[in-house]
Amino acid sequence: MARTKVSVVKGSTKPNYKELEAHVRKAIEMAGGLKDIVKKGDTVVIKPNICALYTHESAAVTAPRICTIIADMVKELGGKPFIGESSSIGVVNEEALKKAGYSALREKGYNVVDFSKETRGVVPIPKGKKMKEVTLPKIVVDCDVLIDVPIMKTHDQCEVTLVLKNLKGLLFDKGKRDLHHTYGIFEGVADICTVKKPDFAVIDAIIAM
User: Fold this and answer.
1) Which residues of 177-188 are buried (b: 16+ CB within 10 A; e: fewer)?
2) Residue 82 DSSP code
3) What does the alpha-carbon distance between residue 141 and residue 186 come to, in Å, rounded to a whole number?
4) What's the distance, Cα to Cα, between the start and end of the chain in Å?
């Protein structure tokens, strides 16, 4: 199995947009860049972590600025970026998007998608140990590239929530419930990764929980 290249860029805990853009672009380029991943015309889903009604300062949700920088990089390569997420069970996703500062990005021309309202697609999991299929937003099923953008934070079950656990946000409410209570979060996430694995990941560690 090929080794994954990991880069870390250090900066201020309160970077302005220009500083943050430089850090994100440098980190992505050091890790291999997007040129070999994103092709002209590709649909690219950028998946932050927006679990509930929080702002980035809480260290619970991904900074929207990071996602816009990645979206701009995708556009530069001729791709079509969509920033999408669905929050935890019981949380109105559109309210979570607004609280975290993502709804406002639409006014700036960014495509922000509420996964909970999307058309659904069922994906078989031939190699699944616990799950035999998974229901995902069709935009995620059909996308050419998936870029995972979690925030670095702790979790009561998994110790930390990073790239793999962030895939839970691709599921609809029933899928999230089943992941916890039927399949087990570790086994379930591993099964999902056999059919929908991120093509690239950027971790927001500006404020870590």
Assistant:
1) ebbeeebbbeeb
2) E
3) 21
4) 31
Q: How confident is the model at residue 153 (pLDDT cuts 50, 70, 90)?
A: confident
Residues forming beta bridges with residue 22, ordered by sequence position: none
pTM: predicted TM-score of the whole model, two decimal places? 0.94
- Strand segments, DSSP code E, in 49-124 are 80-85, 112-114, 120-124
Give the span between the Cα atoms of 125 and 146, in whole angstroms. Answer: 18
d(Cα 134, Cα 121) in Å, to the nearest integer? Answer: 8
Q: Is the dihedral of CA 42, 193, 175, 68 positive or negative?
A: negative
Residue whose structure tokens are 């996602």: 67
Distance CA 70, CA 81 (A): 9
For residues 191 and 156, the model is more confident at 191
- DSSP H or E run through 97: helix 93-99
